[in-house]
Amino acid sequence: MMSIKHHGAVNGVTGSCHEWSYRPDASVLVDCGLFQGAETSPDRAGADNLAIDFPIEHVTALIVTHVHIDHVGRIPYLLAAGFRGPILLTEPSAILLPLVIEDALKVGATRDEALVTRVLGQLRKQMVALPYAKWHSVPGSGDEAWLRFQPAGHILGSAYVEFRAGPKNTNPIVVFSGDLGAPWSPLLPAPKSPWRADTLVIESTYGDRDHVGRRERQKNLRDILVKAVQDSGTVLIPAFSIGRTQELLYDLEEILHREKGGRLTRQLNWADLAIIVDSPLAHRFTEVYRRLRPYWDKEAKQRVSRGRHPLSFEQLITVEHHEDSMRFVNHLATTGRPAVVIAASGMCTGGRVVNYLKAMLGDPRHDVVFVGYQARGTTGRQIQTYGPRGGYVDLDGERITIRARIHTLSGYSAHAGQSDLIRFVKGIRKPPSQIRIVHGDDEAKETLRSKLRVLLPDCDIVIPSS
Questions:
Q1: Which of 412, 429, 446 is the last residue of a domain?
Q2: Fewer beta carbons under 10 A from the terminal one: N or C of the chain?
Q3: pLDDT in tens, 200-234
Q4: Helix (H), strand (E), coil (C) string for the chain
Q5: 387 and 437, same structural domain?
């Protein structure tokens, strides 16, 4: 008898980990992610929320929907707990995952290079890359469990997963959405609804609101750039190294291309505005994104065919070494040279963005632009909440009064908005009899449930607690 358990992303938006049992003594895991922000509170076994606190002896495979850390960050702990089954993921994700895990280990777990090498070696040994849109038997299940990846439009390589217990098309279909993207996200094909889903497990990050459109978000970003340049300030954008950084570069290239030959101020040309990516990991991911051009959408490929380079343009500067990063921090904070800086981490919980925040948050010349979800308890959420009111934030033990302008551009979220989620469900030709809503704050989940109840009054719509 099929069943579903949830080991994460039920009390918030991080730590995604779900279990689908295709028979009483065999199951697969869907993602194994890290808890972040307030969601790292020790409210479950394993006080650091990293240890695997559920049985895995009967788990035959791990399925990875995409490589964001809140979906894959606990994989090393799964391996340490003895899991040796296959790790099934899309072909782009198979290239990206070792980079994500290597960085996560070095930043958050260990500096032991030999240990990192062993973990990555074990990871590569267990990874099995699968193409999109084809049914595959789950290794070790015989013909009892089948899966198919479909593009989710969230980041490169992201997928939602269709499961079937048995080889026949008449068998019930269970769909895990992973994280769905907005239909107009650059570089990525828009997600298309499955034909059938008897049970649907769906994310709800933005289940209570929609994003602004792509044209409006570009206009808003341009307006912020102009104002900052007029004030001789820096536009600081905390951004995740994978997905968000590349999407920002794509839009910045579009703005610069459109404004070619124009001026921001009497003193400065658009062509003189520096775009700085201060994140070695983001630089590596951007290089991989370029190599994976066959997976780009039609619009992005057309830009390249016209001689444009959405992820590698003349004004782009990448910063590799820590010493160079600190020089940029000091230079931009003291000279008044206008620039755009994209730096990790996306929720300001660590990384090089903290150095920029310490130098710039107290100066009204600068702007901080949030382009993604800020989880409860993170520094990013505190700045986003208290910054517009002239509040303060503690950074490395230093209390800083926030005088920089604080902006939130929701249109840059890699997540589907409420209308996109409803459209995804509405597009399922044979609709589900049960929907399980996960990966969202309480208000977002409840709001989405009320909308879906109107759409599907006969459907059992559940907000699981575990």
A1: 412
A2: N
A3: 999 999 999 998 888 899 999 999 999 888 888 99
A4: CCEEEEEECCCCCCCCEEEEEEECCEEEEECCCCCCHHHHCCCCCCCCCCCCCCCCCCEEEEECCCCCHHHHCCHHHHHHCCCCCCEEEEHHHHHHHHHHHHHHHHHHCCCCHHHHHHHHHHHHHHEEEECCCCCEECCCCCCCCEEEEEECCCCCCCEEEEEECCCCCCCCEEEECCCCCCCCCCCCCCCCCCCECCEEEEECCCCCCCCCCHHHHHHHHHHHHHHHHHCCCEEEEECCCCCHHHHHHHHHHHHHHHCCCCECCCCCEHHHCEEEEECHHHHHHHHHHHHCHHHCCHHHHHHHHCCCCCCCCCCEEECCCHHHHHHHHHHHHHHCCCEEEEECCCCCCCCCHHHHHHHHCCCCCCEEEECCCCCCCCHHHHHHHHHHHCCEEEECCEEEECCCEEEECHHHCCCCCHHHHHHHHHCCCECCCEEEEECCCHHHHHHHHHHHHHHCCCCEEECCCC
A5: no
